[in-house]
Design goal:
By secondary structure, the chain is mainly alpha-helical. The chain is built from three helices and two strands; from the N terminus they run H-H-E-E-H.
């Protein structure tokens, strides 16, 4: 693989990753037991690559994003 991605392919991949993050958030929102998560949408979702780098995040509370990256890297 050359490492170069054309802009159209990049846009398609980016859109897919964003959609995955939104779908994860929708599932968390619909299935949460916590009223704070259900009503206030006080949760964060993100998609990470194999190295623990965030590649997409959902449109929810960004307050946990800094800690998520460290947690994922340490879990890997």
């Amino acid at each position: 693989m050359s490492g170069r991605v054309d802009p159209i392919t990049l846009g398609v991949i980016w859109g897919a990753l964003q959609s995955i993050a939104v779908e994860i958030g929708t599932t968390v929102h619909k299935t949460a037991y916590s009223e704070q998560a259900r009503e206030g949408q006080d949760f964060s979702v993100a998609v990470f690559d194999a190295r623990g780098r965030m590649v997409a995040q959902g449109p929810y509370s960004p307050g946990h994003m800094g800690a998520m990256s460290f947690a994922v890297r340490n879990a890997l």
